[in-house]
Amino acid sequence: MNKLIRSAVLGTTAALALALVASVAPGTATATTLKEVKDKGTLVVGVKADYKPYGFLDSDGKIVGIEPTLAADVAKKLGVKLELVPVVSSNRMQFLEQGKIDLMIATMTDTPEREKVVEIVKPNYYSSGTNVMAPKKAKFKEWTDLKGVPVCGIQGAFYNRKTQEQFGADIVAFKGTAEALTALKQGRCVAFVYDDSFLISKLGDPEWADYDMPLKTIDDAPWGLAVAKGADKFAAFMSDMIKDWHKTGRILELETKYGVKNTPFALEMHEKYKGS
Amino acid sequence: MDWSWAFDWARGLYHATGINLTFVYDSFDRDRLARGFMNTVYLSLICLALSMVIGVVGAWLQGSKLVWTRRIVQGYIQFFRNTPPLVQLYFFFFAIGSLMPTHENRFGFQEPMLDNFTWAVISLSFFAGAFNVEIFRSGIEAVPASTIEAAEALGYNRLQTYRYVVLPLAFRVCLPALNNNLVNLVKTTTLAYAIAVPEMLYMANQIWSDSVNVPETMTFLLFAYVFLVGLLVWAMHSWERALRMPGYGR
């Protein structure tokens, strides 16, 4: 419910922001090309504003985080001004299709279905998977350490079965994250299994200072940043940009800056590209 | 007994028609659904018994001469009857549960005293119990005052009158209404999935989330409840017949 309200608020904010963009820069309703962005002098990037630390609002109401910083990198490289537009999962691809944003860096999982709608740039810039959040003193090291341990989860999540069947955990599944986190806090379970990106965002909160994400992330799914279909030159430019981020260790640096333990994917990509 | 023919049949059914009965051929799903079924039966039986005890005791306390006893019983009824059972479950488990003393579990962490199953039992029993008190009251009030006076004249005290005269008569009068409430109680046990009690709906929900076989699992769930409630109704009717006194109540 909370999420719904937040989405609604953000959606409204995004709509207002867009109305503003539309009135200032008319005629952007086509797929944005690299040349158009340069002519316009502004790069409009769709980012999340409710997904700490990937994209969130700071105390001044400015959108900050790992993805907004990456967006700033792109604008700097292009030599244009940056404009951030908050998007949510349900509208981010539409915004790109309609030309309301030039580029989308918004925690989007790369799937074949989505690749049909927008131009997802390869290589993938990030990834997320399943992990657990547990009190530091539980000292879990391997997934198999969860054997016989009560682990909170979310009803219907696909990794509940795996955590139970393969690792022997005792899944206690609740309806939403709020209930599961409350149960974890009350000590009714010793860990909480969920998307690692969400857990990372929670762990950034001082309320959860005594907790960490001790296991190796499994079921890794890559995230894709995207440009509009047909913006081939822009896509090629972004592809070089991503390779450069991996090569220079920019992603790792930003993870560290925002208090995220370096993810296996980012480390692996850095290894892969640093020689090139 | 060898059930492999049934598993093969279910697997064949899936390939032939797309009807995916994972809870028949997949041992993991089968086990968890069976466990869910047993937990529902277990939860229902405990709550049925406790709610009846609460009903009988509550109805007796309602007739107390002490005004505060009557007020407390009345307060209890109002509290449990006027709030949704789902809200009660959340309230007990998350709000009251967090105030409970904690004990150290085997992982070395502090855990609240009562677990989710216990809270479900408490909450659902008191919920159904509140209705049972009123149901028993309706039965008690149907016992003629002259009968009670006769018992008093024979030297019975209040407890004895209640136990040997009023309750046996009242029970027969209120059985149909009690029947209704107990049927409702069995169905209300599904709400315990909200506090992660692994009963049948909880397990079914996880199965259909994993295999996206919602219609199949739903259908099973529906029939399972028809069966369980049917069993209860049959038992209650047998009981009603066994208690029937010729010439009383009809």
Structure description:
- The complex is a heterodimer of chains A (276) and B (250).
- Chain A has 276 residues and is α/β, with parallel strands linked by helices.
- Chain A has 2 domains: 175 residues, Periplasmic binding protein-like II (D-Maltodextrin-Binding Protein, domain 2), CATH 3.40.190; 92 residues, Periplasmic binding protein-like II (D-Maltodextrin-Binding Protein, domain 2, 3-Layer(aba) Sandwich), CATH 3.40.190.10.
- Chain A is 42% helix and 21% strand.
- In chain A, the strands form 3 sheets. In chain A, strands 8, 9, 10, 11, 12 and 13 form a 6-stranded mixed beta sheet that branches. A 5-stranded mixed beta sheet of chain A has the order 5-1-6-14-7, sandwiched between helices.
- In chain A, strand 2 and strand 3 form a beta hairpin.
- In chain A, helix 9 crosses helix 11.
- Chain A is elongated, with a radius of gyration of 20 Å.
- With 250 residues, chain B is mainly alpha-helical.
- Chain B has a single domain, classed as MetI-like (MetI-like fold, Orthogonal Bundle).
- Chain B contains 10 helices and 2 strands.
- Chain B has a two-stranded antiparallel sheet with strand order 1-2.
- In chain B, strand 1 and strand 2 form a beta hairpin.
- In chain B, helix 3 crosses helix 6 and helix 5 crosses helix 6.
- The termini of chain B are far apart.
- In chain B, 34% of the residues are buried.
- At the A-B interface, helix 6, strand 10 and helix 7 of A face helix 5, strand 2 and helix 9 of B.
- Chain A: This is Amino acid ABC transporter substrate-binding protein, PAAT family.
- Chain A: It comes from Tistlia consotensis USBA 355.
- Chain A: Belongs to the bacterial solute-binding protein 3 family.
